[in-house]
Amino acid sequence: xxxxxxxxxxxxxxxxxxxxxxxxxxxxxxxxxxxxxxxxxxxxxxxxxxxxxxxxxxxxxxxxxxxxxxxxxxxxxxxxxxxxxxxxxxxxxxxxxxxxxxxxxxxxxxxxxxxxxxxxxxxxxxxxxxxxxxxxxxxxxxxxxxxxxxxxxxxxxxxxxxxxxxxxxxxxxxxxxxxxxxxxxxxxxxxxxxxxxxxxxxxxxxxxxxxxxxxxxxxxxxxxxxxxxxxxxxxxxxxxxxxxxxxxxxxxxxxxxxxxxxxxxxxxxxxxxxxxxxxxxxxxxxxxxxxxxxxxxxxxxxxxxxxxxxxxxxxxxxxxxxxxxxxxxxxxxxxxxxxxxxxxxxxxxxxxxxxxxxxxxxxxxxxxxxxxxxxxxxxxxxxxxxxxxxxxxxxxxxxxxxxxxxxxxxxxxxxxxxxxxxxxxxxxxxxxxxxxxxxxxxxxxxxxxxxxxxxxxxxxxxxxxxxxxxxxxxxxxxxxxxxxx
Length: 485
Ligand code: GLN
Prior knowledge:
Blueprint: H1 8-16, H2 22-40, E1 43-46, H3 48-63, E2 75-79, H4 106-114, E3 117-122, H5 156-163, E4 169-174, H6 180-186, E5 189-192, E6 212-217, H7 220-230, H8 248-251, E7 260-264, H9 274-289, E8 293-297, H10 305-320, H11 339-350, H12 353-366, H13 371-392, E9 398-402, H14 418-423, H15 429-434, E10 438-445, E11 451-457, H16 463-476
Parallel strand pairs: 2-3, 2-4, 7-8, 7-9
Antiparallel strand pairs: 1-3, 4-6, 5-6, 5-10, 9-11, 10-11
The structure holds glutamine.
The site of glutamine has 13 residues, from loops.
């Protein structure tokens, strides 16, 4: 097995046994970036010298017998939405093209403590708004399985980097599906943790009541270890919850006895493609053969999730993005006569179309006279969606559903149709509105060799259960051989 084909656990083992050094591992992934990224275009910046220097330090510590962090010496790709001290953080936007943060995000601090080594920052939809990474101001990322197809989004660079073996691990963020959908499109594992599980300090905000940072990896165990490294309380994020973080990496291999899996009719109705339906059904058979029970449940309000999300998320975005005024942060126009002119021109020149669309939608939904009819109503729907889940989880341990209605669409296929693009998050958005954890795990391949994922949702703070359930499938199968057509 080549170095870049190994899982995080295998890489850690080979370092422990002295078969590989961190320098060799980091070099192998840098070489793979050199070989594949001119085609995939996942990275916005690569830091070869610094990464190798950090790897050397890890190797020295290993030979000195020093105590090391959970992921010491393992390379990672970071979504360019997390502040990195002294290293450009663009958020995929011309607005922040030259923004060099003076501090590290909490997640970045935790990663450094774990000994993980950043290979660089990866591409994303501008301000994490999108489902294809086509909204990046800088480049279009291709799906590593077929570069004419989209990698998904907004964490498309993170998913493509792992899917192309350019990193074993990456960090993504998920506001409405941005970890799970690209993970599904690129054949990698991606988890959106419970709202409050991971600190958002130093994460460039999109929609603050929905945003969560989470792990992406080439296997379930790698994702579990990565979440363990980044989760936990941080007083600098008032929504960060102070409750213990279990050792996900220790428990991930323990199968769940008598697992009850809920399946909702609402997730298998109109619009779901045949290949995805078949793959999801096959995966349920795999669980049945392991003793799991499939139970019918109902999520009657999930049909309103996309509508509610596209009021709540843009409303919060319109408020969060008010800070980009050409004064406090980022881009400032060169052509202006007065201050108001300067605000308008700076924002007009530096924001892309989708970001402007969201700001307008959100400003409208929050405006007096419309607030009650749109924003407030959406909040009420959000509460009903959460109640549906609470009732379902009285009967089942996890809920299984598709991640997306179809495998990766082609680049350009949906970019002129914002509504069709919004609908690509139909199965993922409810978990964000309800604040619940969700994982996407690859379960098969389409007829034209594009990955298909299964989504498992769990009750709040039961990430451990989701990792174990996802691992049960992964252990039992080689998903790349499970082709449906
Ligand atoms: N695709 C959704 C959107 O455009 C979700 C994005 C995300 O999760 N960051 O808003």
